[in-house]
Amino acid sequence: MFAIPQLWIRVIGTVICLVALFFFVCPLFVGIRHVGCYAGALASVLGGIFFAVNPWVSAFLKKAWDNGTGHFLMCVGIGVVCLCCVLAVAISVGMIGAIHDKPKTENTLVVLGCKVKGTVPSLMLKRRLDVAADYLKEHPEVPVIVCGGQGKDEGISEAQCMFDYLTAQGIDAGRITQENTSTSTYENLVNARSILEKNGWAYKITLVTDGYHQLRASMIAGSLHIDTDGLSAKTSWYLVPGYWVREWLGVCYQAVFG
Question: Domain end: 66, 88, 119, which one?
Answer without folding.
Answer: 66
